[in-house]
Amino acid sequence: MHIDIEKRTLTNLHGQRNFFIIISAVSLLIILIQSVTLFFKDEKVIISPPELKDSYWVTNKRFSQNYLDEMACFFAHLLLDVTKDSLPHQGEIALRYADPVFYGRLKAQFVKEIERINKDNVSTTFTTHNVKIFMEKLEVHVSGILSNYVGDKKVSSYAETYVVGFSNHKGRLLLKEFGVLASNNLNNQPSIVSDGSENGN
Q: Under a CB-based contact definition with an 8 Å cutoff, are residues 69 and 140 in contact?
């Protein structure tokens, strides 16, 4: 009698042990599958960059087209809608987004532009007319009218196209290039900017 009870108890314990082993194995397998899935998952992130109008998605490998558009226009505003008092601060904001590899070159360009603005005592405004996006290169061409002012008087206007180049650093968009691609003097007269090639550099 006691032997039968002990056998049944032992059988039940073995059954419970096997059940928990199976549960543990299944749980471990699920955790491993989830870990592998998360490791290779291209997660989409919703972000709202400073000074922008909307939220855009970013993954580790790709950026939405609207995000590139708005970020390029953001940098164009920072570096082209300037006075001699505002450019140093706005340039520093832009440099916070600079690719570390290109930081030194970009800073040198901004310092040169600050010197030009101070020397000529001018302010500039830029009105965007067109944006062309090259997704594969993470490059945006921003076209518009750049106007130079001395005091309240407009002294020259240019139809200009700027290249705004970006790099992807672990899902973060960083500035690596900002410069003039094309420039056309709309006044057909000499400008305080020698050839238009230094604007934004």
A: yes
- pLDDT digit string, tens, across residues 88-105: 999 999 999 999 999 999
Cβ atoms of residues 72 and 63 within 8 Å: no
The CATH code of the domain at 63-185 is: 3.10.450.230
Domain spans in the chain, listed from the N-terminal domain onward: 63-185
String of DSSP letters for 50-96: TT-SS-EEE-SS-B-HHHHHHHHHHHHHHHHSB-TTTHHHHHHHHHT
> Are the CB atoms for 1 and 8 separated by under 8 Å?
no
In the block, residue with structure tokens 């050839």? 195
Global pTM exceeds 0.70: no
Burial of 167 (0-12, 13-18, 19+ CB in 10 A): middle
Beta strands in the chain (DSSP E): 45-47, 56-58, 123-134, 139-150, 153-169, 172-185
Q: Residue 92, Cβ neighbours under 10 Å: how many?
A: 12
C-alpha radius of gyration, the chain, whole number: 30
pLDDT of residue 52: 53
3 state SS of 5: helix
Collect all residues with Cβ–Cβ distance below 8 Å to 126 and sequence separation of at least 6: 76, 77, 80, 81, 144, 145, 146, 147, 160
The amino acid at residue 5 is I
